[in-house]
Specification:
The chain is an alpha/beta fold. Helices cover 37% and strands 18% of the residues. The longest helix has 26 residues.
């Protein structure tokens, strides 16, 4: 049976070489690809509106009869108007066509027409300018509107799509979703879905078609990511027989939040299971992920295994090592540190202690991935700020043990909908409570006219012994032509010679060498620097409890989630902290985004809003996540379905769940879904 993906476009009636070349600009080279060029919107010609009932500024469909043939009016060279009145039996609609002789030829007095456009009032007269026209007998339906390119209109695509749908008869047996799965989830067949996504018989049929195609797209993506990320089943990991959480809690000088306790319980339950743990602990800034990691590692170590935590920077690794040493003091757990900048003799000793089993819990950077690092009995791997690591790096560290448990931590709030995809091979635990004593950060959006007041506010807090961050979107002049954007280097010089002359200032940006960045950040952490001028390089950084003000220039340049991450650099202690967002942008949508941060400190609410407004790009970061462009699914509104999809994917991964033919169809569809990723699915 031929696959629609193997049928070239020129085999579709009405598509010649010239039009096929235009389709190629849209990435469409086959009949299968054309049928997945889904409408971006629809015009409802199936429901007509009386002329007098038409709403202002709202396109609608008017059914009426031309009273007379169009009158031709030559306005000027290159501009011809065609005017004619249409009656719906009660009122007259005065219609004007611009340079459209073809449409005017369709207008015949006494023959009913459908006109789609916007009705306006001119005194007592109803008017419609440049409507679309169809004869009443053929056009009364829901019509698709397609993304187009120069020389290829939506109507051309509509015509070609009707022809492409006829080819489905050649492809009836190639539905990638097995019949039992369609039945379990009440999904339409692929044929029904494709026919009604392009030419829906009514609104209900369109909804049914969309649901099937969204489910299919998310399912294929989920299955593909599970394969790409190397999920294995049937393997045994470093099984933990006993839960030592109660013993860990007795060691702590404070009480954990309910969310922290639940996350530790989730992890321990996974480690006691038949397969290695693969879990994401996702928490807002300051939610206490380190204490969770310590609790999980404690149980692993008491179960005679070693644990390793990998952090993206040396400074963060050092902070984690200090925090974990403090948390596990008196527990008997031996914490070590391994970084690239350590003296050779120190690194050699740490490596020897690891191999001998004299270090229970090692914290490090990418240095943990080097060949010389050998573990005695690695049973738990923890990666912090997962979005800074690739899947391959995580796998390399895991390979140093015998199927160790994997715990991934992220302080970047990602809506659960998206987390199920981005971290498709991981179970998810969410830390949605802050430890007691933390105060919400007060956030304000101001224009540049209030910048001096902001400076004075910062100086007031410096006088009280506090510190501040000032963040700019660019590193140096010349990166962008927009004059309003302030570079970090130029801004630093401006502040040092002007408003903050005589104050201790520091500069931090991504082009600095790692050692220099660490030197500046360490000085800020010690309190030697009062104001740190930085780019977003501080988005993931060490805790500086004494820093209480975050000022962000050109705040409209950042996504909401990124702004939330930046403000999370303050509010790390018990003092009231503030975030000042500076922007002269008057766009209502932009102001609403910035006001969102004023209304809430909940990173997950911010992330959900950002996902709906800006799409998933801000959450995915580097290309290593490998998500192709979704064609029909909307991650911002698919949460409920995504959970169903995940369950379906789990079932389909079970051995003997599908026949060989069904498996082959799924495999082919998965490869096509992920073809933009560039990874092998073998």
């Amino acid at each position: 049976m031929a696959s629609l993906w193997g049928i070239p476009l020129n085999q579709i009636k009405g598509v010649g070489e010239k039009r096929a070349a235009l389709y190629q600009k849209l990435g469409i080279t086959s009949a299968g690809a054309l049928l997945r060029h889904f409408p971006r919107s629809y015009e409802d010609w199936s429901r007509t509106t009386a002329i007098a009932d038409a709403l202002p500024d709202t396109p609608c469909c008017i059914k009426g009869t031309p009273v007379r043939a169009p009158a031709e009016h030559f306005v000027r060279k290159g501009m011809v108007l065609y005017r004619f009145p249409v009656s719906d039996g009660k009122d007259l609609l005065h219609v004007t066509l611009f340079n459209n002789k073809f449409a005017a030829a369709k207008v015949r007095p006494g023959e009913e027409l459908l006109l789609f456009g916007t009705v306006t009032r001119n005194g007592r007269q109803y008017e419609m300018a440049a409507p679309q026209l169809e004869t009443a007998g053929t056009g009364q339906r829901i019509r698709p509107i397609y993304r187009q390119t120069e020389g290829l209109t939506s109507r051309m695509i509509e015509t070609n799509m009707a022809q492409a749908l006829r080819l489905l008869d050649m492809d009836l047996e190639n539905d990638p979703l097995p019949p039992d799965l369609r039945s379990d989830h009440h999904l339409a067949t692929r044929r029904y879905a494709l026919e009604n996504i392009h030419f829906p018989v009514d609104g209900e049929a369109l909804a049914v078609a969309r649901r099937r195609l969204v489910f299919e797209e998310l399912l294929l993506l989920q299955l593909g990511l599970l394969r790409l990320k190397g999920r294995t089943r049937g393997e045994t990991g470093a099984k933990i027989a006993v839960d030592y959480t109660a013993e860990y809690l007795e060691c702590l000088p404070f009480s954990l939040t309910g969310a922290q306790r639940r996350a530790i319980a989730d992890c321990v339950a996974d480690m006691q299971g038949a397969c290695p743990m693969s879990r994401l602990v996702q928490g807002d800034v300051g939610s206490g992920k380190t204490a969770v990691a310590a609790g999980v590692a404690f149980t692993a170590v008491r179960g005679s295994w070693q644990a390793a935590m990998m952090a993206p920077t040396e400074l963060l690794a050092e902070q984690h090592a200090r925090s974990l040493t403090r948390l596990l003091a008196g527990s008997g757990v031996r914490v070590g540190l391994l970084t690239g900048s350590q003296p050779a003799a120190v690194k050699k000793q740490v490596q020897a202690d690891l191999a001998a089993g004299d270090i229970d819990f090692i914290v490090g950077t990418h240095a943990l991935l080097s060949e010389g690092v050998v573990f005695h009995r690695l049973g738990l791997v923890i990666t912090d700020e997962q979005h800074r690591f690739g899947v391959a790096q995580r796998a390399t560290l895991a390979a140093k043990g015998a199927n160790p448990h994997m715990l991934v931590m992220s302080a970047t709030p990602i809506p659960r909908t998206l987390a199920l995809i981005v971290y498709g091979d991981l179970d998810v635990s969410i830390l949605d409570e802050l430890p007691p004593g933390r105060q919400p950060i007060e956030t304000y959006a101001v224009d540049t006219g209030k910048r001096e007041r902001a400076y004075n506010y910062i100086k007031k807090h410096i006088a009280e012994g506090r510190q501040a961050y000032i963040v700019c979107p660019l590193v140096e002049d010349g990166e962008e032509e927009t004059a309003s954007l302030v570079s970090a280097t130029a801004y630093f010089d401006q502040l040092a010679s002007g408003p903050f002359r005589g104050y201790s200032l520091g500069l931090l940006h991504g082009r600095m060498k790692a050692a220099e960045k660490d030197r500046v950040m360490s000085a800020f952490a010690r309190g030697d620097i009062a104001v740190l001028v930085s780019t977003t390089v501080i988005e993931v950084g060490v805790d500086v409890p004494n820093a209480v003000i975050m000022m962000v220039e050109n705040a409209e340049r950042f996504g909401l989630s990124q702004l939330h991450q930046l403000r999370g650099r303050v509010g790390r202690g018990s003092e009231q902290s503030y975030c000042i967002l500076v922007s002269d942008n008057r766009n209502p949508d932009t102001r609403e985004r910035l006001e969102m941060l004023h209304r809430t400190n909940d990173g997950f609410k911010v992330a959900e809003y950002d996902l709906k407004v800006r799409g998933p790009g801000d959450f995915l970061g580097k290309r290593q996540h490998g998500l192709p462009q979704l064609k029909i699914a909307d991650l911002g509104s698919s949460m409920e379905m995504m959970e169903q999809v995940q369950q379906a994917a789990e079932l389909l991964l079970e051995p003997n769940r599908c026949s060989e033919a069904e498996r082959n169809l799924l495999d082919e569809a998965i490869r096509r879904t992920l073809q933009t990723v560039g990874d092998s699915l073998n």
